[in-house]
Design goal:
four-stranded antiparallel beta sheet; globular; Alpha-Beta Plaits; single chain; 316 residues; six-stranded antiparallel beta sheet; 6 helices
Length: 316
């Protein structure tokens, strides 16, 4: 499986005082959704589900992502939505008060066809700065957008976007487990990981649960935004092997936070697992899967930046 993506780093400068929450993912994603619809939606008062332009609408594809009527992958007929083709990575710093002149950076990951829509994302984030974000609608100026290797994609001075070809995350579909390559891996959950199993959110990051979640997310992303086919994984064998991996140390805990949904008019709990856990066993075959998860995140709420983690191999 080759899943196209591109990672960008946005940097803006505060023009006013910015008052942002401790976890900034909700603020960035909420403001982005409102601005994106205002910019690209032709029939703004039309419900996406009944809009005649839905099949060709960029907003509907990016933000109201829904399965195709004929989709039959992994029981998607039961669901009204599928993973969005983007991940907003808010700054991990805990600062809440930014003064005029201070810089703030955040990441954006575009997946599959969404890579071609990058100019719309850049323009939307620029326009967000004019309307303001945060508690007092503080304004900012978008200065630069760079790739994760430092290449300049956009600058405020030039206002020209340099096209970037998509990268590809190569994820194996054939796995061999022999038990002879016992190593350890430390996983650091940097933002809350909302991992579900059996319709419930898990509070302990067992390795098998992580693998199940990654298989599902990557399969759906590839099917709807990538190669348009279901992976040929032997799910039963992979999950059985994941069940043999031991969690030798668990320094994670549940962290709660809430977001307000203006569309639904309610406050929603969005807590998840943060902290570090170490796993030991025949993990080497799983490393490509884990590294793909570092790019595309894990679990629910990924468009808010949830489920971001990093791995270190060979940690005892």
């Amino acid at each position: 499986m080759n899943l196209p993506y591109r990672h960008y780093q946005f940097t803006f400068v505060a023009q006013d005082q910015l008052l942002l929450p401790y976890y900034k993912g909700s603020t960035f994603r909420g403001a982005f959704g409102n601005a994106f619809k205002r910019i690209v939606c032709t029939l703004r008062r039309q419900d996406c589900k009944t809009c005649i332009l839905r099949t060709g609408c960029i907003y509907a594809y990016v933000f109201e992502t829904a399965p195709h009527p004929d989709a039959a992958i992994m029981g998607t007929g039961k669901y009204t939505s599928i993973p969005h083709p983007f991940v907003i990575e808010p700054p991990l710093e805990t600062s809440r008060d930014y003064q005029p002149g201070e810089e703030v950076s955040f990441g954006l990951i575009l997946i599959g066809k969404a890579v071609d829509y990058f100019p719309y994302f850049a323009y939307t984030f620029e326009e967000m700065g004019k309307t303001g974000i945060g508690k007092r609608r503080g304004k900012y100026s978008l200065r630069t957008v760079k790739t994760d290797d430092g290449g300049l994609v956009y600058s405020h001075e030039g206002r020209t976007i340099r096209p970037q070809e998509a990268l590809e995350a190569a994820i194996p579909e054939e796995y061999t487990f022999n038990g002879n390559t016992r190593i350890s891996v430390k996983v650091s959950f940097l933002t809350p990981a909302r991992i579900s199993y059996g319709r419930d959110l898990v509070v302990s990051p067992d390795f098998q649960v992580i693998v199940r979640s990654l298989l599902r997310r990557l399969n759906l992303l590839s099917y709807f935004h990538g190669e348009k086919r279901e992976a040929t994984w032997n799910h039963r064998a992979i999950i059985a092997a994941a069940g043999e991996i031991n969690m030798s140390a668990n320094h994670t805990h549940w962290w709660d936070w809430e977001r307000y949904s203006s569309r639904q008019g309610v406050r929603m709990k969005m807590g998840g697992i943060i902290g570090k856990a170490t796993y030991e066993g025949d993990i080497e075959p799983f490393l490509p899967l884990l590294r793909a998860g570092e790019i595309f995140h894990l679990g629910k709420g990924t468009s808010f930046g949830l489920g971001k983690y990093e791995i270190v191999v060979g940690v005892q």
